[in-house]
Structure formats: structure tokens, C-alpha cells
Amino acid sequence: MDPELYAAAQSGNWVVMESFSDDFYTQHTPVEDTVLHVLAESCDSENVVQLILAGHGRLLMKLNKRGETALHLAARNGHFRIVRALIDYAKSEAGHWFTPCFDRRKRMLRMASVAGNTALHEAVRNNFYDIAKLLVQEDPEFRYPHNYAVETPLYLTPSYLGPGHKTALHAAAIWNFPDSMKLILEKLPNLIKNVDKFGWTALHYAAKFNHQEIARLLLSADRSTAYVAAKNDDSKTALHIAVTHGHVVLVQEILSHCPDCWVQITGKSRNILHLAVKHEKREVLEFVLQNSCASKLINEKDNEGNTPLHLYVATKNLDGNCLVNQPFVDVNSFDNSNSTPLDRIVRDDQLLERQILMKDQLEQAGGTRGYRNVATVKKILRAASPDEVKRVEKLAENYSIVATLIITVTFAAGFTVPGGYNSDGPHKGMAVLGKKAAFIAFVFSDFLAMFFSVDAVFEHVKLVRSKNYGFKLAAVRTIGERICQAVTLVMIAFLTGLYAVLQNLVMDQA
Q: Is the same domain home to 419 and 403?
């Protein structure tokens, strides 16, 4: 197209365009847009359209390479006056046509582009509802077909049935059109539970895109829609979708209408806590843990035996302190492969900084590695490095030194009892304070402290003789426990012995 004519058509300059009027039928762009196409796309000049069609009426139905008339372009760009001028011309007796003007108007309105779009498709898709209303009024009895993307104009408004079996309600939820949603719910309330090919209702989409007003409208209309599970998407409910995307306000909205829907699980048996952890939605995680349902969700297992804590160790950014330290959490729960959450973390010499943090969190909360079967123990044995074995043996050796010192102290205390012995009389050689309750408590505490210390030494002997790394780890834990028990009992023995002696001195002075 001549550059001067093209510029004039874009600006609606009829004075310049008129000088090219003899070439209107031959002048076109590389995509075969005529001057009428260019004008309809670029500006809303009703008078120029009338002037062009007055002498070149055949341009009304002229198609470009995309199969579009000027009406398509005007509708797409919201040029209401041009749309009305094109329709008025089609309805008039002007031009040399072999069909009645009424048929010419319907033919133009119903013409579909290469993509299958009518002018109504274009108007609705681009939210020009005044143009859409005009087009529908001009051909009210026509049932517009879907385009090649399976979209009807009604779906795009949004509509009744669109791609993937989506309904008008789906579209209103996706595009966040509350006003359209209200109208559709009034006229077609039965759509509320209709699902698309994924099994999603409109509420699922509202949950995904965090359209809170839409969700509120749907739940107010029929709260049972919150219980619909997507058959083709792991049986997820709208609540599961909201949790997955971290929309905590929408989670609260759904639970406010349906407080019992938190019990629903996905097809993989994952609850909302599993999903919050897996998708690392901390705000949702903290909200759920503050809820009374947390105690029931915290240790539930999915199809693979994973608790939310098992999934936590696989996260990359989630801060799981609130989860690890939750009062009801079982930090040593086994999954289907007999692994605890701590088992999921690799050997110490391979830990990343984040894994070290997780390991510390779990161990501080009482987490241990699990040894439920031989395969697990063998796997750990093979994974243990010489440095790890030496570290465990060195720790056990240090524990044994402490145990030996406690044995020495308790053995000596057993023969140098508080208060001494009777030197004469019928009870010669017997402990002076032997009948006092505090002294008896001293004797038992001293004996038990020595017993636990001796047991710790025996455990060390077994550890040294064993080549099983798993057994060594278990033995170190046992030795540590025995040392703690022995130290506690030594303290009790000291206090009760001291009390027995001081009590006797006070009575003698009185």
C-alpha cells in the first residue's frame, strides 16, 4: 500500500485518501488489509467509513489473509461508531448486491476468520461489551459456534461451554468477574458444581488465582462445592489448591464456610499440612499449625508413609522450626522404607549448610536415625567413613573415662559412709545413721549410680569389639544415657548424705 495512503487511512484523513480512491480495490498491505481494514483498526471515524463505502461498497466483505473483514478489526479495537456504520451500510439498499440487504447483514455478522472467530468473538475477548451488545441485537437468533480454540462468544463473556469443558462460571472465576459471576449464578445456578476435564470447579480456579470475592460468592451460593475433589488432578479440593499456592486468606475463607473440609486428603493421601510443607508455603504452614486440627494432621502419613516432617527435609527454603518443635510431632516416625526424617539426610561429610541446620533442628527435638531392618543398617554401615567411625569410638572412650571416675567415687563413698560407724556396743561396726531415711536414700542412690556407670563401661567394651557402625551409634547413645543417669544419682547421693549428717549435728547441738 502506498505509504501516503496508509498514513491517511490510519489517521482517517479523507482529503488525502480521496486522491487514491480509484485504487482502493488494488491498494492493500502485505497481509491484504484494504484501506477500510486499516481505518477500522486504527481510528473510530464513522464519516470516513461512509465515504469509502459510498463509492466502494465491495470493500465491506473484503477479507485479508487472516480471513477478517473490517468489522472484525473494528470490533477487536473497540471502534463502536465504525461497527455501527458498517452494519448500517450492510442493512441499506446501497451497493450492487445479488442478495437482499437483510441477508447481507447476517452474512457479515456471521463471517468467521481463519481462526474461526466472528466479530462477536473479537468484541467479547477484548471486553468491548457495548459492541458485543450491538452485534447480538442485530442477529439475536444466531447461535454462535465455537472457534478453533473451542471458544464460543458466550464462553468469552464468560460463556456456558468452552475449551476443556469449562463453563461460564469457570471463566468468570479465572478472569475475576464478580458481576458476571452473580448474573450466572442467578440464571444458571446448576453450573456451580460443573467440572472441566481436570475435574476442577469454578472454586478451584478462584482458589488458584486467589480471587477472594469470587470464592466468597461461590461458597455463599453453595458451600458444598468446597468438598468437590478433582478426579483427574489427584483428588484435590479447592482448599488443597489454595494451600498449594500459598493463599492463606482464601484458605481461611474456605474453612470459615466449611470448617470440616480440612480432613480431606488428596489421591496420594496428603493433607493440607503435607501440601503446605511440600510447596514451602510458610504462611499457610504457620496458620495450620495454630489451628486445633494441627495435632491430627502433624503425624498423618501419605501413600509412601511420609509425614509432613519427612517432606520437610526435602525442601530448599522452608524454615521448619515451627513444624519440628510442634508439641504433637513424632520426630522419629517411620515411612514405608523404614526411614525417619533424620534418615533422609545424607552422611555428615556430604551435608550442605541447610541440611546441617535441619539435622540440628531434628536432633535437638529428639530425632534419631532408625534401624528397623538389616538392609537399613547395612546401608548405613557401607556409608560410614573411617573418620565417622573414629569419631564415634573417641566419643565412647571419653564417656567411659567419666563412667570410670563415677565408679571410683561411688565405690569409695560406699565404704566411707556419712556419720561413720559405731565403735562399740551391740551395733559395733554398723553405720551410725543407718536407720535414717536420708541415709537409706544415700545408699540406694550411690548403688544405682555405680550400677549405671558399670553398665556404661560394659557397653563401651561391646562397642570396641563390634564392627557394625549402626551398633556403635546405638551403643554411644546408650552410654550417654547411662552417664546422665549416673551423674544425676551421684548428685542425689551427695545431697541426701549431706542432709543426714547436718540433721544429726543440729539435733546434737539442741
A: yes
The SS3 assignment for 69 reads coil
**Residue 161 · residue 155 · CB < 8 Å:** yes
- 473 dihedral zone (left: phi>0; alpha: psi -120 to 50; beta): alpha
106 belongs to a structural domain = yes
Can you tell me which residue has the cell 530448599? 316
Name the domain boundary from 264, 285, 319: 264
Distance CA 370, CA 122 (A): 63
CB 214 within 8 A of CB 206: yes
User: Is 464 inside any structural domain?
Assistant: yes
CA R_g for the chain = 42
117-138 tens-digit pLDDT: 889 888 877 878 788 888 878 8
* CATH code of the domain containing 237: 1.25.40.20
What is the dihedral sign for C-alpha 307, 311, 313, 318? Answer: negative
**At residue 277, what are phi and psi to the nearest 5 degrees?**
-75, -50
Quote the pTM value.
0.49
377-391 mean pLDDT: 59
Q: Give the integer Cα–Cα distance in Å for 91 and 55.
A: 16
Average pLDDT, the chain: 84
